[in-house]
Amino acid sequence: MNIGLTYDLREDYLAEGFSEDAVAEFDRSDTLDAIEGTLRELGYTTDRIGHVKKLAGRLVKGDRWDIVFNIAEGVSGFAREAQIPALLDAYNIPCTFSDARVLALTLHKGMTKRVVRDAGVRTPDFAEVKMLEDVGDIRLPFPLFAKPIAEGTGKGITAASKIRDRSELASVCSRLLEQYQQPVLVEEYLPGREFTVGITGEGREAVSVGVMEVILLDKAEKGVYSYHNKEKCEELVEYRKPGDALGKKAEAVALAAWRALDCRDAGRIDVRADNNGEVHFLEVNPLAGLHPEHSDLPIICTLYGISFLELIRRIMTHAVKRVRPV
Ligand SMILES: Nc1ncnc2c1ncn2[C@@H]1O[C@H](COP(=O)(O)OP(=O)(O)O)[C@@H](O)[C@H]1O
Ligand SMILES: [Mg+2]
Q1: I need a labelling partner for 223 at 20 to 30 A (CA). Which of 28, 44, 93, 172 fits?
Q2: pLDDT, tens digit, for every residue of 219-264?
Q3: Atom of ligand 1 at shortest range from CA of 270
Q4: What is the pTM of this model?
Q5: What is the Å distance from ligand 2's center to 63 Cα?
């Protein structure tokens, strides 16, 4: 089976004139090497395509694949993660992970919370700040938490994201609006333990591959799993199997959200507890990072004795069901 690989590689964008800073979020070549090597070990033939514009060129040229393994998050627009799956849909080529509709929804954390909440899953109350004047209308109880509405990897998240009063709220929102040029999601702050849950499969067949508690060490930025803490996770964060009732609750909340959102193949859901021991949905990562040692999903798998090869094998087992015989 011939598998195309789509991704946003740092080198490709640097070659197009992007700055080092602008490419910081893109895939490192060792992630791609690991995925490609593992797919070959599993007996697949692979073909590196690259980002959405390279895919468009190859499709127009007439190239086709049985399935595309897609880890590209895209560059611009709220639907940036959906662009490749949508383009592939137009050519009837299946791809791994969630479809265009899901990826367009889930990049927007506010819209996603509306869907999850409608399905009866707990998520902190929230407001969307589209312009600074919106701050005056917010009636949520402090402390609050503010973050860009459509970013990942801890972008825009620091110790200052936890907000104690209205003047802090205005200054943090003003900075985030300016820096990220998108609305700010303002939520009730959850003071409890934090977990991230790895999930494979879809619908009724979706299962948790493991739940991992994120424990910030003394030297870490306090109270938030921020960009800084994520980047330096080897020194600042401890990842632990919870092994108690709250961990089980985290898995149940994550699975309910995964099913409500129609996510597929594999990904991660972040949750956090409130003061009453209830677990709330924070966000879903339907294109979770796949660096074998540095990304949370493979780290969860390692904690639970699932090798990187086994993770990729499970993703492919689910995804190839969508390949139609010609
Ligand atoms: N409402 C909240 N209350 C407390 N902490 C939060 C809240 N929202 C986010 N955080 C903290 O910020 C981190 C990053 O937020 P998240 O929405 O997962 O963004 P990202 O996409 O950058 O991972 C979380 O892992 C958590 O530590
Ligand atoms: Mg997160």
Answers
A1: 28
A2: 999 889 988 898 888 899 999 999 899 999 999 999 999 999 999 9
A3: 18
A4: 0.95
A5: 35
